[in-house]
């Protein structure tokens, strides 16, 4: 191994590393706190000083998934013994489980709308990106700029007419409506990212395929698509994360059947505002997949974030 | 975006080959591929925008669709520009924009510079720092209200621990003085990694030989930093500022969960004010005009900024 004169000295590296790790640990604290609060009992979660060491409990998770009602001690004593651990936790608080909560449904809505809109934006985005990459299209630069500029609009600015439009078309509070909306928001990013990836695939591959008697279309999906797979996958993750996290449209356009998790989770807190463990449990279930994804796929993701800056 | 010669050369299927290709023509495929995207954007972005412009000249109220709609010319715009509430929300937005960008650039650049010292395990730590920006701002913002609770909140406890103050003596979200800073802190926590990543890309794009040459010329490290590192990262940094500026001008989810615009209207940013006018007071015409003013402002500022950016890049 050769040393360059510009290489930082071991001491500099050690110093830089310490500072960065310190910042990382501070930045991680709120996230660790979410995770921990999910496993606390409600009294533990609001104790002073804040408890770092505590008896773990699943009460938050039980409260997250159930709706409960308070019963009098006499009625409670008359009940048969609890059938499972969830019943037992709830009865310790003088309550009984009366049914499931809406969290499962809202979480599924997030999954359906997230994956649906990601699939659609990747499908349409790949086609458009291929055409922009390979063909002469009149006003190409203007169209590409137009596609990008749609991202500058504040969501609330278009929310008013979309709200009216959806009300007329019967799309408000439907999965289809939200999927179309998120696709429209995501597609500009998808086209730009994917065009970059497809630009990097040499045209000679397709031309060889054409000479072998493939149609243009066959050349596209048998030669170009497999080559662009990595790029498509990392673009898909960006689209999915956006749709997963989106709040403004979700809170304005959905209220029931198609409501996603972000507008729902803050409402878990309930009467009195004391059930932070349940909120934290919901947040953990909702945020953890994204964190795991980010860490596992860091190479592709980090490249994607800086993509726009690096190419220009 | 510069076009590479290869792109230009191979713009379409070479002529002799094109004649032999079976199936749809290039032109047909190009249009079939592009049309759905353009159509979707027209339907969900451009059409609503035109509709908003149209609504902004009326006194329409969305909660009373049967009332007769009157065109009232520029009166909505007049009222907005003289409305003191709107100016207060613009002030709140300006405060939020300025300080979030200030802190994010400062911390983001420093972190990128440290990470670029290439210490062992730097990519894993980079990823951990990036985590907050990948998460849902609404869900995270909601949880921060818990961290900010006086007495029981972790944030207050930590601050009290280091300063010796009483943790229940200050309310980050409830006080008129502190709330504007509370939202700046959370936004900085969340989005500094974005500025950091872009700066890091900039630092990594500087070829080593420039530093080697400077080293041979015996330029001091301090001088190298100001004459090589800073100017070469500047275009990247400005781009990061542009993205953060646009995003924070539109800021809604995080702050609405943190403070809902309060206390009073101290943290009522433009988007939150707009939401209140449009979906709580149902002044649809009025808020459409406000939406257009916001959009024109973002677009105008962004275009001026991009011009400045291009000048820096050309240098």
UniProtKB/TrEMBL annotation, chain A:
Membrane-crossing segments per the record: 14-36, 111-132, 144-166, 178-198, 219-244, 276-297
* Pfam families per UniProt: BPD_transp_1
| Residues in ABC transmembrane type-1 domain copies | 107-297
Q: Where in the cell is it found?
A: Cell membrane
Give me the Gene Ontology terms describing cellular component.
plasma membrane
GO BP: transmembrane transport
What keywords tag this UniProt record? Cell membrane, Membrane, Transmembrane, Transmembrane helix, Transport
Tell me yes or no: is Transmembrane helix among this UniProt entry's keywords.
yes
Question: In terms of domain of life, where is this protein from?
Answer: Bacteria
Taking the first listed entry, what is the main subcellular location of this protein, grouped into a coarse class?
membrane
Q: Which InterPro entries match?
A: BP-dep_ABC_trans_perm, MetI-like, MetI-like_sf
The membrane topology term of the UniProt record is: Multi-pass membrane protein
* SUPFAM superfamilies reported for this sequence: MetI-like
Family per similarity comment = Belongs to the binding-protein-dependent transport system permease family.
Q: What is this protein called?
A: Trehalose transport system permease protein SugB
Species whose genome carries this gene: Pseudoruegeria aquimaris
> Which gene is this protein's source?
sugB_4
Automatic annotation (TrEMBL), chain B:
Q: Which domain of life is it from?
A: Bacteria
**Cellular component terms per the entry's GO annotation:** plasma membrane
The record's annotation in InterPro entries points to: MalF_N, MetI-like, MetI-like_sf, Sugar_ABC_transporter
A Pfam family of the record is BPD_transp_1
SUPFAM superfamilies for this protein? MalF N-terminal region-like, MetI-like
Record's subcellular location: Cell membrane
Q: Where is the ABC transmembrane type-1 domain?
A: 90-305
User: What are its GO biological-process terms?
Assistant: transmembrane transport
Q: How does it sit in the membrane?
A: Multi-pass membrane protein
Q: Which UniProt keywords apply?
A: Membrane, Transmembrane, Transmembrane helix, Transport
TM region positions? 28-51, 96-115, 127-147, 178-203, 224-246, 286-306
**Protein family according to the UniProt entry:** Belongs to the binding-protein-dependent transport system permease family.
From the Swiss-Prot or TrEMBL record, give the protein name. Trehalose transport system permease protein SugA
Q: Which organism is it from?
A: Pseudoruegeria aquimaris
